[in-house]
UniProtKB/TrEMBL annotation:
SUPFAM superfamilies, alphabetized: Flavoproteins
UniProt entry tagged with the keyword Iron-sulfur: no
PANTHER family to which the protein is assigned, alphabetical: NAD P H OXIDOREDUCTASE-RELATED, NAD(P)H DEHYDROGENASE [QUINONE] 1 ISOFORM 1
Species assigned in the record: Paraperlucidibaca wandonensis
One GO MF term: oxidoreductase activity
Family according to the record: Belongs to the NAD(P)H dehydrogenase (quinone) family.
Enzyme Commission number(s) from the entry: 1.-.-.-, 1.6.99.-
Domain Flavodoxin-like fold: 1-207
Annotated InterPro entries: Flavodoxin_fold (IPR003680), Flavoprotein-like_sf (IPR029039), NAD(P)H_dehydrogenase_qn (IPR051545)
Keywords noted in UniProt: Oxidoreductase
Descriptive protein name: NAD(P)H-dependent oxidoreductase
Signal peptide stretch: none
Length: 232
């Protein structure tokens, strides 16, 4: 299969980067084609703006999503957006690799999503969840944290991390139609021992070998909602 890893960490020697490298090595060794978008290394522009559009449906008012649709039809999206979209279209599996920042993803990755998950291809109208533009593809989050496992679990002080990451897991990946695999978390990684970090890497490699059997998160199905998206 074709794998796209979208990686967002500013330090090439980081543990998050080591997890990304482990994914590249494991998946390549298993015979998959792996492409990496290393957003900080690419100096990826995360700021959605009028400069993203080579032509305009409306010259005097920027409705970003409508201009995305117009520029999809006109084939005039900015080259950096078009290049990332082509990688997504070619991918069977998309991995998002990042350190947890403020209960969420780093801004550079959020900006990649804002600009690259374009209306008119990825979503739009009823083109969401199991009807989403990226249906048939799979996605998985690989995240590291400063917090400890028990702090980021159900009943813990911050609550369950998979619930916390709903904006990316459901609101982005699931919404776009992707089958969302259970995330992998490396907890508390700056503060544990070198041996413990190596064990996290080993566990990650082992889990990647079983990716075909990995648990998936339950997402809404449009079949359960009427034309106005009210529950049937
Ligand atoms: P690093 O600090 O880069 O690495 C940890 C250690 O691993 C280093 O000593 C490194 O040398 C070592 N290492 C590197 N490669 C290997 C290898 N191959 N084998 C073994 N060891 C290796 N945390 C939360 O829990 N919740 C939050 O909401 C949150 N918000 C944050 C917001 C911001 C703006 C910032 C900057 C941090 C935040 N954090 C938060 C903490 C952050 O999530 C963690 O610091 C980060 O995930 C740790 O991962 P890292 O890759 O940066 O670790």
């Amino acid at each position: 299969m074709n794998v796209l890893i979208v990686h967002a960490h500013p330090e090439p020697q980081s543990f998050t980067n080591a997890l990304k490298d482990a994914a590249v090595a494991e998946l390549t060794a298993a015979g998959h084609e792996v492409v990496v978008s290393d957003l900080y290394a690419m100096n990826f522009n995360p700021v959605a703006s009028a400069a993203d559009f080579g032509s305009r449906g409306s010259e005097d008012y920027l409705n970003y999503a409508l201009e995305q649709r117009h520029n999809v039809k006109a084939n005039s999206l900015a080259p950096d957006i078009a290049a990332e979209l082509a990688k997504i279209k070619a991918a069977d599996l998309v991995l998002l690799s990042f350190p947890l920042y403020w209960f969420s993803m780093p801004a550079i990755l959020k900006g990649w999503i804002d600009r690259v998950f374009v209306s008119g291809i990825v979503y739009g109208g009823r083109r969401i969840y199991d009807q989403g533009g990226l249906s048939g593809k799979r996605a998985m989050v690989i995240a590291t944290t400063g917090g400890r496992d028990h702090m980021l679990s159900a009943g813990g002080i911050h609550g369950d991390l998979t619930e916390t990451l709903k904006p990316v897991l459901q609101g982005t990946l699931g919404y776009a139609g992707m089958t969302v695999l259970a995330p992998f978390y490396g907890y508390h990684v700056p503060y544990i021992s070198q041996e413990a970090r190596e064990a996290v890497l080993d566990d990650f490699r082992t889990q990647l070998r079983d990716i075909e059997k990995r648990e998936t998160l339950v997402m809404p199905s449009l079949a359960n909602f009427d034309a106005e998206m009210k529950p049937l």
